[in-house]
Amino acid sequence: MRIAVVTSPGSVEIRDIPVPGIGEDDVLVRITACGLCTMEAKLYTGAMPVYPVAAGHEVSGRVERIGARAAALEDAPAVGDLVTLDLLTRCGTCRNCRAGDSAVCASPQGSMLPDGSIGMGSGLAEYVRVPAAHVWPVGDIDPVHAAMGEPLACVVHSFRRAGYRSGDRVAVIGGGFMGRLHLLLAQHEQARSVTVVETDPERRSAALDAGADDAVAPEDVGRLAPADVVFVTIASPEAIGTAFRTAADGARLVLFGGSHDTPDAALPGYEVHRRQLTVTGSYSQEPADWRTAAALLRSGTLADRLARLVTSRHELADVDKALTESSGTPVYRVFVEPR
């Protein structure tokens, strides 16, 4: 099968490796679409120098083969089903997994492929092997929308971490792809209002077109009604500072965007204490979040809003163009569709 491997900054090649075999609890999936997120951009630009690496973790596909034990289970996916895939390692035995926090599983992520490449999702390929428990059927929808299952599950997790309640006033700091997913989920979950705070005027305009109640620059947050929940989707101290200025007394602030190389932000301890603010992080997703995300995708209720976030589609043979576009220009999501 063909698989894309990033070999150095700005360099990617298509290699041939064997189609993975499967065990009794596995599913072989023929990939239909893979979204390129910040991780793939960092690998391609050299900001995350891990080589050679087979990336791609926002993946959809059709079930090609099912292991015998998995096939015998009630509600097992059927051959031909369109599915969205959880490619996170969840060992089930570390302290975090046993506490129900598999989003922060302590086991090393990734794998080693037959050609010696490091597998970090390995979704820029024709096939992938996945444990049956990580396969979520989504019905007859656009495969590119199905590939948004992973980021959508992350946003569902973010809402759970926030203790979100219908009727909350919501502020989203950042109008990029993940900010827009927070916007559409808040709309779906009947927020009283949703405001997007964004420096780029074009993205502010796009957020308004997508139904945001307001979209403002950070310097203008003082004119907003204070928010019950603030989602920070940008990894910067400035964004976190803006979140505190946007929050109502008693608000919940979720630090969703993060990067290991971002400078630390100062925590206004007295403000958190006096105003009874709750500050929490949100990283990755849990199986319960996948269940919700797959149901949302299967329902089709988000389809029109998800379609607005598709920047472009490329064939696997043109993966270099896809990676260049996703890492060098402002985009929502660029997708690779093996065919």
Structure characteristics:
2 domains, Rossmann fold, 339 residues, seven-stranded mixed β-sheet, six-stranded parallel β-sheet, globular, alpha/beta, 12 helices, Quinone Oxidoreductase, Chain A, domain 1
Explain what this protein looks like in three dimensions.
The structure is a single chain. This protein is an alpha/beta fold and 339 residues long. It has two domains: 2-148 and 309-337, Medium-chain alcohol dehydrogenases, catalytic domain (Quinone Oxidoreductase, Chain A, domain 1, Alpha-Beta Complex); 153-281, 3-Layer(aba) Sandwich (Rossmann fold), CATH 3.40.50.720. The chain has helices at residues 38-45, 68-71, 95-98, 143-146, 149-162, 177-188, 201-209, 237-246, 269-275, 287-299, 303-307, 319-328; strands at 2-8, 11-16, 26-36, 53-54, 58-66, 82-85, 111-112, 118-119, 127-131, 135-137, 169-173, 193-197, 214-216, 227-232, 247-255, 278-281, 310-315, 333-337. The strands form four sheets. Strands 3, 5, 6, 9, 10, 17 and 18 form a seven-stranded mixed sheet that branches. The protein has a six-stranded parallel sheet with strand order 13-12-11-14-15-16, sandwiched between helices. Strands 4-8-7 form a three-stranded mixed sheet, with no helix packed on it. Helix 12 (319-328) links the parallel strand 17 (310-315) and strand 18. Helix 1 (38-45) crosses helix 12 and helix 5 (149-162) crosses helix 10 (287-299). 45% of the residues are buried. The model has no long low-confidence stretch (mean pLDDT 96).
